[in-house]
Design brief:
2 copies of one chain form a homodimer. Chain A has 349 residues and is α/β, with parallel strands linked by helices. Chain A is built from 13 helices and 12 strands. Chain A binds a DNA duplex (16 and 16 nucleotides) through helix 2 and helix 4.
Chain lengths: 349, 349
DNA sequence: TTGAAAGCGGTACCAC
DNA sequence: GTGGTACCGCTTTCAA
């Protein structure tokens, strides 16, 4: 019933625990072949499993990292987590997943807990909160991490400083709006996210400057609030249908809302893309399953996770400098939810 | 740069580390109010964060659990993980997520790693593999867990024994087939999952016995292989369209394949439900976003995770007996992808 | 009420 | 080549 420890192995093999440690860790220190064999055999026979906890205590490295996300059920985060996990596994790291629902208190609490477990690093997958007080608190908590030699990488803009792997959110939206404009649309509604997220602000500002760049007026009533979830997309559809002057195109700031909007418009008897062109951002799997398939800006979500984790590892071995940033490319995926204004495609119904 | 330890706090508060430990852990052992205050103050001032690793070593409890899933990007597992995580957080547990892609070697490797980290328990979220050798190996690995006092709960049938929280997979399919039959369908195709999973076998056997119970012939050509992923649903649609005698209904053994099939059928010019009724299993979020919304058997995925985690905790405090099983209810969700054979609904097109 | 000391299971430095 | 031993940072008897 008692755990078998390195001592038991040493006894069984008739060697010191030092030697056991050496052979089991492939230490460069010389060990005779026969001793090595005896140790291996003993460890095997006793079914010895070295305590990673004990190892972590003395080596000051846990080989555990934490990833803080909004919600594992959101495909956006699920994809990122998968990217993180795959790289982590290949490098012998374990990952603790923390759902914060973007609640600052929960995020902060997780941060402290992860610190007490002495994780080797933390990845912030979600958009940063634009709350000053929160930003300071996180920054302070991160201080503890850095002091220990632990590292941090963010996959979105944050108020605190850290190594980052990003997409250019502002440009993503600019490109999306530009595409819609190139189709002839001049009245483009925008479904925004929660105001307190940096990502939301960047995307919104992309929308605004794209309109401005094309000399289009910014109509406040065309900016509809959402929360990046499916249901808010449906509500947005209602809001759009209630508009006295309906837009000819709608850009949802993420696919989940875009899909909700698609369903909402359909239920309201509005045809996409004949009556309204609709487009999203992210390119989650569902985007191609809906009818019509959703045009969207594909973000490299999996890569954000995998490259984020790779960066974390390099950061630890000082192959990478702190507080730098990497920006990954996005790309337009044209499907059938968007059509040129006044063309055959848009007219047929 | 050096970590502040309990010793530093003790020095600063002018007490022994024993006392520090006592007040910081709310020990029942008496400590004078002023001493307590001094300790608290010192800990605060030093920004002391007790090492959960050191605590774990001596208390022999890590408050970390592992959950082994197929793929975090699959809504099925994402939902379960969310259920696990929510309960874990409320109880002060951390959860390590392990993606195995159902590869036995990866699963086994994770199991050993988790054991070396002395996790308090493991949750198997996915269906068991029907491989004898694999079953034995897992059983053996679990032995190590049990010997340590760690626990295990499975959310599906497995060859090894463990506490389980289940759905009655055979009955789920029976109920689905029964519903289709009640709509007048007599020729029902079935999209199955990977043969090596217990879940697949149970569901398939539900399909077979449902047909038999209704005196319907079992036509092998109507059983189409899939792997529970979206793409295999699309391939299944092709296979179905190529059938000399097309079925009037299709039951996909999960929603992801059901949705893939829906898209595939649409592309092949086949109308759902007018030409073919289609139904899935799971009730993932996307099921209601596709057109037509998918009729499905809703499984309590979130509850599987949350109740699984609650059971794990109770198991550890011996409030629950090992190796028992809990079965959760499923329910039919009728949406518009299914229609009665020969009715107005099925005829209009 | 308070504290000294024996571990928990390893690693790594230093001798031999 | 091999082994002794001082920690890593905490909890928990056992005494005082």
């Amino acid at each position: 019933m008692d755990m078998v420890s390195i001592i038991d192995v040493a006894k069984k093999a008739n060697v010191s625990i030092t030697t056991v440690s050496r052979v089991l860790n492939g230490s460069p220190h010389p060990v005779s072949e026969e001793t090595r064999a005896r140790v291996l055999e003993a460890a095997e026979a006793l079914n010895f499993s070295p305590s990673a906890l004990a190892q972590a205590m003395v080596t000051r490295a846990t080989r555990i990292i934490g990833v803080i996300i909004g919600d594992a059920m959101d495909p956006y985060f699920a994809t990122i987590v998968r990217g993180v996990e795959d790289v982590a596994r290949r490098h012998g790291y374990l990952v603790i997943v923390c759902n914060s629902d973007r609640v600052p208190e929960i995020e902060l609490q997780y941060l402290h807990t992860l610190d007490s477990y002495r994780v080797d690093g933390v990845i912030f997958a979600g958009g940063g909160l634009t709350d000053d007080k929160y930003g300071r608190q996180v920054g302070q908590a991160l201080e503890a991490f850095y002091n220990r030699g632990a590292v941090c990488v963010s996959l979105a803009k944050h108020l605190f400083s850290s190594f980052s792997v990003l997409v250019d959110n502002e440009q993503v939206v600019k490109d999306a709006v530009h595409y819609l404009i190139s189709l002839g649309h001049r009245s483009i509604a925008y479904i925004s996210g929660p105001a307190l997220l940096t990502t939301t602000q960047l995307r919104l500002s992309g929308y605004k400057s794209a309109l401005e760049a094309h000399g289009l007026p910014l109509k406040p009533e065309l900016i509809i609030d959402g929360d990046y979830k499916y249901e808010s997309g449906r509500r947005a559809a209602e809001a759009i249908m209630a508009l006295p002057a309906k837009p000819t195109a709608v850009l949802a700031s993420n696919d989940l809302m875009g899909i909700g909007c698609l369903v909402g418009l359909r239920e309201a008897g509005c045809h996409v893309p004949q009556d309204i062109s609709l487009m999203g951002i992210d390119d989650i799997a569902t985007a191609q399953a809906v009818d019509p398939p959703l045009t969207t800006m594909a973000l490299p979500l999996y890569d954000l996770g995998s490259i984020g984790m790779e960066s974390l590892i390099k950061l630890r071995s000082h192959e990478l400098a702190d507080h730098e940033a990497l920006t990954l490319a996005h790309r337009l995926i044209i499907r059938r939810s968007t059509a040129a204004l006044g063309t055959e495609e848009a007219m047929k119904r």
